[in-house]
Each structure stands twice: as C-alpha cells, then as structure tokens.
Design brief:
Blueprint (H helix, E strand, L loop, with lengths): L1 H14 L14 H14 L17 E11 L15 E12 L4 E8 L7 E15 L2 E16 L3 E15 L3 E16 L13 E18 L2 E9 L3 E10 L1
Antiparallel strand pairs: 1-2, 1-10, 2-3, 3-4, 4-5, 5-6, 6-7, 7-8, 8-9, 9-10
Length: 243
C-alpha cells in the first residue's frame, strides 16, 4: 500500500503543469526591487496547511505535495515571461513529523526544474499551546523559515511567526492563523544582472500575515485548501497521506 502511495505521489509530481522560464526585467530600481521581494519573497514563505492537531498524537508522519499560486499582477511589468505576469505557480513537497507530544517539525522544498527556474527549501516548527480531548479547538505557535532562488536573478530568505487556531474533527478541520513575516532579497548585479546600479543589491521587507483554510480527511488520506495573504494573496491546494 505504501509503495502504491509513493508511486501516486511521483506520478502526481510528473503531471504538474510547468511554466515557461521565469525572468525579471533589467534595470530594477530600489522601489521595484522592494516590490518584488514583497510579492515573491514573502509569497514563497512557509504555509500552515496541515491538520491543527499534533502529528505526534496521530500517525506521526505526514507526506504531501501542494500546488501554490502567487498573484503577481502588481509586479507584472517587472516580469518578462508573459505566463507569469498574473500568476506564478509551482509544486511544493512537504514532510511533517511529530517529535514530541506537542511539537511538530516540517520541511518543504520546491523541486528545481529548468523550465521554471525556481527552487526553494524551508521548514517550520510548530508548538501546540492548548488542546483538549473534550473540545475540537487547538491553538499553536508556528515558526517558519525558507530560502528560494528565482532563475539565479533573485535569492530570498524568509522567516515567519504565526499564531494558529483550528477546529479538528474526525473528517474535517478548519484553521486560520495571524502573524508577521519578513523576507530579504538579494538581486544579482553585473553586466548580466538585473539592478539599475549594475551591482548586487539587497532589500528587506516585512508584512502582516493572515491565512485561512480547510482540510478534509478520509482514512490516511487528506486534501487541504488555503488562502494566505501578505501584500498579495497566495492560494494553496495540497494532497497527502499519513503514516
């Protein structure tokens, strides 16, 4: 059964749509660079899309794959690829493990493809604050971090801290979170770079973060949908299973 599930995940990855190569325009000034980090750097940050309850008290291991969609309409004039001017979408693989009764660890990454030119790696630590067997309410704090590369033109590092609250039943969970996110972006300089100064430039931005979503579960399988909002919305659809 688990071999079949692994095969399913591999087939799902292979069937995901791929965009044309992602390219930024050249001559980016400070305002343009900051806007790109707000949309892209924050957009690829960690997402809270798992069951609200602790994995350590369930099957213990979660394996999933998601498709994330970042609205890039506000920076469309700064992107050369027409297919990415309104929406940037990509697959993201995630693995979660319950370490202790109240602590979960997640790692996630975007598998690199030459057609997309985007790679990412990150993770999160979730600490459960309150839960009760007599109530479906669960609260937790989530610390997330990540690093991403956009076609070797923009490298970003992000960190986020969220307070999450959810309601979990046998077959359905709903959840939301609020917090702060920060991203730092480094733009490549030189004659082949994208900055107006022709030198490497770095920009740092921060934002309030809000998310809401729902998860449906049947046996060991689950599917979740979520909306995250920074400066622009990010939509996520995820499928996976538990061990």
């Amino acid at each position: 059964m688990r071999m079949l599930l692994a095969t399913f995940i591999c087939c799902f990855i292979a069937s995901l749509p791929a965009q044309a190569e992602f390219n930024l325009t050249t001559g980016l000034n400070e305002a343009s660079r900051q806007q790109l980090v707000r949309i892209l750097g924050l957009g690829v940050n960690n997402k809270n899309t798992s069951i609200p309850g602790a994995l350590g008290t369930d099957h213990g291991l979660e394996v999933s794959i998601a498709n994330e969609f970042i609205s890039t309409e506000k920076v469309s004039q700064l992107i050369q690829d027409k297919g990415s001017r309104n929406t940037l979408f990509y697959p993201k693989i995630s693995i979660g493990k319950g370490l202790y009764d109240r602590v979960d660890l997640f790692i996630h990454f975007i598998p690199y493809t030459a057609t997309l030119g985007l790679s990412e790696f990150g993770g999160a630590v979730r600490l459960h604050i309150t839960r009760s067997e007599s109530s479906p309410l669960v609260t937790s704090a989530v610390l997330g971090f990540n690093s991403a590369t956009f076609n070797n033109q923009l490298n970003t590092q992000g960190v986020s801290l969220d307070f999450s609250m959810g309601m979990q039943w046998d077959y359905l969970s709903v959840f939301s979170s609020v917090g702060l996110a920060q991203a730092k972006g480094r733009f490549v300089g030189g004659t082949q770079g994208v900055t107006d100064t022709l030198t490497e430039q770095s920009e740092r931005v921060s934002s309030f973060h809000f998310s809401v979503g729902a998860l449906g579960r049947y046996n060991i399988y689950f599917m979740s949908l979520a909306l995250d909002h920074y400066y622009q919305p990010v939509y996520t659809g995820k499928v996976g299973f538990y061990f």
